[in-house]
Design brief:
By secondary structure, the protein is of the alpha/beta class. Helix content is 39%, strand content 14%. The chain contains 12 helices and 13 strands. The strands form 2 sheets. It has a 7-stranded mixed sheet with strand order 1-7-6-5-4-2-3, with helices on both faces. Strands 8-9-13-12-11-10 form a 6-stranded antiparallel sheet, covered by helices on one side. The chain is globular, with a radius of gyration of 22 Å. The protein starts with a helix and ends in a 6-residue tail after the last helix. It binds pyridoxal-5'-phosphate (PLP). The site of pyridoxal-5'-phosphate has 12 residues, from helix 5.
Amino acid sequence: MNNEMYEKLGISSAVAEFSEKILDKLKSRFDDIDRIAEYNQAKVTLAMQKNRVSAECFAGSTGYGYNDRGRETLEKVYADCFNTEAALVRPQITCGTHALAIALSANLLPGDELLSPVGRPYDTLEEVIGIRESACSLREYGVSYRQVDLLPDGTFDYDNIAKAINEKTKLVTIQRSKGYQSRPSFSVGQIGELIAFVKKIKPEVICMVDNCYGEFVEMIEPSDVGADMIVGSLIKNPGGGLAPIGGYICGKQSCIDRCAYRLSAPGLGQEVGASLDTMRSLYQGFFLAPTVVAGALKGAIFAANMYEALGFRVVPNSTESRHDIIQAVELGSGERMVAFCKGIQAAAPVDSYVSPEPYAMPGYNCEVVMAAGAFIQGSSIELSADGPIREPYTIFFQGGLTWYNAKLGIMMSLQKLIDGGFINL
Ligand SMILES: *Cc1c(COP(=O)(O)O)cnc(C)c1O
């Protein structure tokens, strides 16, 4: 793009030139991402064609939502695309945590044990499981929890996983994305190996994968390598930025039936649940998701290469393969985190005029800074960044509905760091 337009956006020619230099080296990485996106686009399109998606599917329903053809077809589309027997995809699932809570509480009974062989789960699940005490946690209902931490190099501790599986072990939960931890995210291949290991010891155990932030990053999903359930949020990858709400659970019919009874009521299951006015955006978002995820991945790789070149530690690093859309940058100080977030916010299409400031948030022992100028509240498939203001002062960056906007956000973050006197080019 020409410098005149960059100038209008508030980007100096030095930042523009530095960015182009970084991008020059990324051509083949971006080609790989495009190949994956094309493949995933074909998967989604085929699933829609096979299930005869038509204009009627977008009409929506009200009240009980009996015979909602749009909802039923969308669930078949998800099931086919993710290669599972069944799917539960609904606006009644309020977020990713809710989808995971449904999947767990529907398939675990008093006396059963839940095992996480990949260390501590995502923060919000601590209360669902009862690691942190909470009313209505699984623990309160008599479901016990066991955890095997990863080895220091981030790989699976197979010896201790084998020891942890016992007669009570009913469900194994595997989180694909690192979330806001510093461990690596897992490839679908690695997850497949872990599932095979668990099933060899105890074939009847249910393997569930928290697939948040992972959808469409690779050509296969954990459900292609033996997962009995995969679970995620529609305001992340599979909603493609258009879904205004929702979550999904795809998997074995026997597991999904139970999830549907848990979500609505025993006996009712998938038969009820009006789709209201959400159907068109859920379909259209799913259709766009492979492209949106590709844009977010390009942004993450661009950010990794830019900030690594500037001397910061980045996770994943500039050359590593990608298994989710999150990019962590260790900025080393709170002031730099705030400047980075101001840049991301300034590049947003919505609320670009506000300036992020650190604030205290429930559940954290320190202040948190966040940047998000999103069409959908809290949507993290849209350009966003956040992080707790504490050692090692890491900002987590993700999303961007288009590659060009993600690129602008990253350039703007650098501009703000330069303007603040934190970096010299
Ligand atoms: C976002 C996320 C969740 C929770 O999703 P919410 O929609 O925020 O409730 C769970 N697990 C992982 C790995 C996530 O990234």
